[in-house]
């Protein structure tokens, strides 16, 4: 019946169920906890139906969140019902035991639903970044094109002995664009891209983690074409084994290894591509390290990439720098990572805004905007910023001095010792990106 309803009617019905549950929860006595649970469950079913017909990604995101909250509320209520049931008659009837049995199944189903939803949420929305938004890293881009994009685009080329790469590890100092590069891959392919952060795997789904990994790989294998699974910050799950290793980390690791092996042996290897990123590859368990066919070093940007990166971060702002200025800045930022440069540029872009407070000379543009200027300008107007109409206040363009000022307080964050360590690792295990 509900299938034929339009989304608005479904929204209304869902909110009525939630209202009943909310009213019940506000009662001081005789709370019908079963009624609350049933209404939340009904509302959740409707939310799932709306989800299946909704196309707006923002609304889908909100529905996903709402659905997760409702699942957890249901779970909490079921636990509470079980507790009350136990208190009411621990010695007692088969009825209550049956009820508990039913609830256990319900709970299992709900967890399964929650896991499925969590997996679906890892499927990256396309279009946030593309390869052009990643400066430099040409070799890494080339390797990823060959490994992921080409096999999806031209499956007919990868037959017989010519098999596409299955697993690539990106490693390098913090802030060099590893995560951004992976996000860019997701925009370049049409197949599913699962983007998982390993800290999510551990903290959000304790006890459920290994099931989640298993189902994630199953979900990925069941899709048409070749899916990409990206696990960011893989070091937090795949550290070298140690005696004080946490139990759940160990289980996640074992499951992940099993899935990697399963993919090798079951012939599903060409259905999943695994991409991982880390900034401490030496911490990884050798069993994992060995399974990556390519380990690509994502280094600090060179002079050209620094130039490109700074320009990229200035996009959309009025920046008045000559080619010589850019070159000077690119030279002065030796050793900066991509994110150090992003911070530097941000600070420089902010300088004109900071200037506004101390300015009392303004020039008015033909379209009525006020821009700060030198007091000796014959056309200048003297005023405090608070005396001007706020919507008419504009900043001056950003100049090289703003960058030089920003360079004084924003320094590089990657230390030389760390770079030496990366160079040693690359010599033994890696490949330059
Ligand atoms: N090559 C690049 N091209 C464009 N932006 C970059 C690049 N490298 C770094 N950045 C900038 O730095 C920020 C951090 O990049 P990102 O998160 O991809 O780094 P990371 O290598 O994954 O770092 P971590 O190892 O700490 O996770 C990005 O949001 C982006 O602004
Ligand atoms: Mg990252």
From TrEMBL:
InterPro entries: AAA+_ATPase, AAA_lid_3, ATPase_AAA_core, ATPase_AAA_CS, MT-severing_AAA_ATPase, P-loop_NTPase, Spast_Vps4_C
Signal peptide, first to last residue: none
GO biological process annotation, one example: endosomal transport
SMART domains according to UniProt: AAA
PANTHER family (UniProt xref): AAA DOMAIN-CONTAINING, VACUOLAR PROTEIN SORTING-ASSOCIATED PROTEIN 4B
Family: Belongs to the AAA ATPase family.
Protein name: Vacuolar protein sorting-associated protein 4B-like
């Amino acid at each position: 019946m509900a299938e034929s309803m339009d989304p608005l009617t479904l929204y209304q019905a869902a909110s009525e169920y939630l209202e009943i549950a909310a009213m019940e929860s506000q009662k001081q006595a005789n709370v019908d906890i079963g009624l609350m649970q049933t209404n939340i469950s009904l509302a959740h079913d409707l939310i799932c139906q709306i989800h299946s017909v909704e196309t707006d990604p923002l609304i889908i995101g909100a529905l996903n969140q709402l659905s997760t909250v409702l699942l957890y509320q249901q779970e909490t209520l079921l636990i509470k019902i079980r507790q009350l049931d136990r208190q009411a008659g621990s010695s007692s009837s088969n009825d209550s035991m049956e009820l508990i049995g039913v609830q256990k199944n319900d709970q299992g189903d709900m967890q399964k639903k929650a896991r499925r939803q969590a997996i679906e949420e890892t499927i990256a929305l396309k279009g946030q970044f593309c390869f052009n938004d990643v400066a430099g890293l040409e070799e890494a881009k080339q390797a990823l094109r060959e490994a992921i994009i080409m096999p999806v685009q031209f499956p007919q080329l990868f037959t017989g002995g010519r098999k596409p790469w299955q697993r690539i590890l990106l490693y390098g100092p913090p802030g060099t664009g590893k995560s951004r590069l992976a996000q860019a891959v997701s925009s370049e392919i049409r197949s599913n891209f699962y983007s998982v952060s390993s800290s999510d795997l551990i903290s959000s789904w304790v006890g459920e983690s290994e099931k989640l990994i298993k189902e994630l790989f199953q979900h990925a294998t069941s899709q048409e074409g070749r899916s990409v699974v990206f696990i960011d910050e893989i070091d937090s799950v795949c550290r070298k084994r140690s005696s004080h290793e946490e139990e759940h980390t160990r289980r996640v690791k074992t499951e992940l290894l099993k899935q990697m092996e399963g993919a090798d042996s079951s012939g599903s290897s060409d259905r999943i591509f695994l991409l991982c990123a880390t900034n401490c590859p030496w911490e990884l368990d050798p069993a994992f390290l060995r399974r990556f066919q390519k380990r690509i070093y994502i280094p600090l940007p060179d002079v050209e990439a620094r130039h490109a990166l700074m320009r990229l971060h200035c996009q959309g702002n009025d920046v008045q720098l000559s080619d010589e200025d850019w070159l000077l800045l690119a030279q002065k930022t030796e050793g900066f990572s991509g994110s150090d440069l992003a911070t530097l540029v941000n600070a420089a872009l902010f300088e004109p805004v900071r200037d506004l407070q101390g300015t009392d000379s303004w020039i008015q543009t033909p379209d009525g905007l006020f821009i700060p200027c030198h007091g000796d300008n014959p056309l200048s107007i003297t005023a405090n910023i608070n005396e001007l109409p706020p919507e008419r206040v504009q900043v001056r363009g950003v100049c090289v001095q703003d960058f030089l000022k920003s360079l004084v307080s924003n320094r590089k964050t990657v230390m030389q010792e760390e770079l030496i360590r990366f160079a040693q690792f690359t010599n033994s295990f890696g490949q330059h990106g």
